[in-house]
Design goal:
By secondary structure, this protein is α+β, with helices and mostly antiparallel strands. It has helices spanning about 1-5, 25-30, 50-55, and strands spanning about 15, 35, 60-65, 70-80, 85-94. A three-stranded antiparallel β-sheet has the order 1-3-2, with no helix packed on it.
Length: about 90
């Protein structure tokens, strides 16, 4: 449903804990015509659910931007008391 909503906006940016793995069909649908800023560098896990999940390198927190936008300094940052990493990037129109 989120992909359908942002399809109506050329400059839509979607940021946050989507609990949507980048290996799922829904993720591929969401980034069609866009890109995940968090994949502009080394894609690393944004979920730390312990040793059982670590090997999956789950990336479930995203910054989705239009393909025409520039991205720099994409990174993940620790959040005290959370099992997720914060996501951060400098984004903007080219």
């Amino acid at each position: 449903r989120l992909a359908d909503v942002v399809d109506g906006f050329d400059d839509a940016v979607v940021v946050g804990d989507l609990n949507l793995c980048d290996r799922q069909t829904g993720y591929r649908r969401l980034i069609r015509g866009r890109r995940d800023a968090m994949r502009s560098g080394r894609a690393r896990s944004t979920f730390d659910g312990g040793w059982r999940w670590r090997w999956l390198s789950l990336r479930i927190d995203h910054i989705i931007v239009p393909l025409t936008w520039g991205v720099s300094e994409a990174r993940r940052l620790p959040i005290a008391g959370s099992d997720h990493w914060a996501v951060s990037a400098v984004i903007g129109r080219r």
